[in-house]
Model the fold of this input.
Amino acid sequence: MSPGSLGIEIQTDLGEQLVTQNVGEEIFSFAARIFPICRSITGDGVRRTLREIGSRVALEMREVPTGTAVFDWTIPREWNIRDAYIRDGDGAKVVDFAKSNLQVMSYSIPVRKRLSLAELKKHVHTLPEQPDLIPYRTSYYAEDWAFCMTQRQLEALRDETYEAVIDSSLEDGFLTYGEYLHEGETDDEFLLSAHVCHPSLANDNCSGVALLTELARRMIGLKTRYSYRFLFAPGTIGAIAWLARNEEASGRIKHGLVVSMVGDGGGPTYKKSRRGDSAIDRVVTHVLRHSGLTPTIEDFSPYGYDERQYCSPGFNLPVGLFQRSKHGTIPQYHTSADNLSFIKPEHLLESYSVIARTIDIIENDGAYCNTIPKCEPQLGRRGLYRSIGGKKDIAIENMAMLWVLNLSDGAHSLLDIAERSDLPFEVIRRVAQVLQAHGLLTSCATGAAS
Ligand code: ZN
Done:
């Protein structure tokens, strides 16, 4: 795979912005397309979302029946919702699901009743500290019903009788997830996983779903060493169901990323796999160090998204979590403020570029041997100082050349050299290609990241 093959042209001069072909806009427009759909951990919202993904890549939809045991969990009943509202005494809708699907707690059981304000308030969630925002609430595993509204909406309700209607169903059905495999030269896999269970929340996680869909689409036709498994599943129970059905196959996963909240301008944040020293941990750390952004690298913790399942001790897969702002740390998190104005094409592009660069390193790391290891080869005689790079890159690339020649003893991969020299992988690799073309390097082995 060559640089640029994922739609980005990786420039060698540090600090330069990546050149792209509207990747950020493409991701944003797909995120906007799936944003209105009311998703939950089961139901038609997930299916509709997967069908949208399936219109771009050949996604396989899987249905797991209610009641199926998946490790210590059981697939719940399927939830669907058609409408919901609260009417006041005049018949006016004071809360309307049709205007925002966040206004009904996900998995609310069906309700149709008249009740006093005091009774209604027992079934209302608000955010008193953020009085203009609707909270996102769920009750998957405890039968309940509730409306979510802004604190100002609640305060405006008069003391009268209301009609509360939730036209939902909670019945035996299925849990649905989708997967797409980009087949590489080997069966070794790189897992890319996004949760698809949140309703109209843009960053968490329409952004992650859209980014991975666009990445999968752009990989069609590319020759890769690894196979790439894209998994779009409801959070927690979906990942658990996938692992339960693919316990043996999960051993093929050599690298993995959970991708969520990748459209805001914060972070980036990378949480390492439980192993802490996996190739994916090294590669993402390296990419972020040279991204020009302000990254935070965190050690593994057993709280977060589906890395919790992939990194459970019985699997212990090399899967990290990539986000921009860390979940739970921003005021928009799990509120109506996580809307389409919160995510931006330029941030989606940056996030995409981090993942594309990560794949590029995973695909292209390798170890070389210096063919003239006794003292430095005479580079000037070969015209190498003049042949590499643009003017302002010369100092960096000459330094990279010295590092590559010195450490290319078969025991250090290009990633090792990039880390040791603190130079970007793509500079190290490009220099290695030039040195190889001049007969000064020979390929010895696949790299540390491979
Ligand atoms: Zn969430």
